[in-house]
Amino acid sequence: MDEFALRKGHNYGTILVDIDTRRPVDLLPDRATATVAAWLTDHPGVEVICRDRSTAYAEAGRLGAPDAIHVADRWHIWKNLVDAVEKTVIQHRALLREPEETPPVRAEPLENPALMPRSLDEPRQSGRLSDRVREQHSAVHALLDEGLGLRPIARRLGLARNTVRRLANAATADELLVGRWTGRTSILDPYRPYLHQRWAEGCTVARRLFEEVRERGYPGGESVVKKYVQRLREAFPHDDPPRKAPSVRDVTSWITRRPDRLTDDQAQQLKQILARCPALGRTAEHVSLFAELMNDRRGRDLSQWTERVQADDLPALHGFVTGLGQDFDAVVAGLSLPYSSGAVEGHNNKIKMLKRQMLGRANFDLLRKRVLLAA
User: Fold this and answer.
1) Can you give the pLDDT at residue 122?
2) pTM of the predicted model, to two decimals?
């Protein structure tokens, strides 16, 4: 037995599936203990109930089929363990990132003419405006050499006549690129020495550099710093950029996944994390032992496993063990017997498909009828 969504987040029903034939037996309009218990009472002879670990279904089974064996579904047990592992990883997330090694500081300063602040009287040498002015100046003077007048040149180039006149009167493009509007200093100029120093020390993350200069009074936006860091990256590249730290979800997945399904890089990262964080290392060991216990159907060894966990200082796993103890016999049966609720998931998908086909206008009785007919 398992729940299914009539209206996700609001209303849920119960689906009952025959363990042997894997066909749906019935749909109930809710997941209340009284509803499920009444159905079991009306259908005597149930010998095994495979369920999740909710107290509602557990109590319903005890009331409606007191002689039945309760089997906690392995998928739900494993999911509860994964949730406990994730809580443990969150507690130690600061250790997921590789420790930063202090790179050798460059003996020489970062010197590159392209990165030096311009003088107020120095013409702009690059940029969209500079390139456009130089191109226009060259085109105007080429046409002047051909004997064209200012008006025909303006028409041919699509420029205003006054613009053509200024270009024609300038002997070089640099005369037009020196002025109050072209030689302005950048608000980042006072902080360039600090950025150069931090870059030489190995700090290459634009976001971090922006936060550091902002703490020192930089009044501008992050985009200006990002553009400048890109120029630094092009002029003074670092051979090994820092690798992004794995997320909590990544590490949780690596710990709870079969080792042979990890890539070489994932396995290497996990090995380094477990070495840096003994608590996660011990968690991984407990998870591995539990996986062996579950795969080998050794439910009889569950008590020994829980004792080992309780002797360890891992609060999240202690909570998982406490939950197992509240439904211990069903969990042992789930880890020993071959029964599973795997067939229910397929029927849940069929229910979703039928609801879509009925465009949400179906009532429960019609949905129930179609599910049972489809089986």
Assistant:
1) 46
2) 0.60
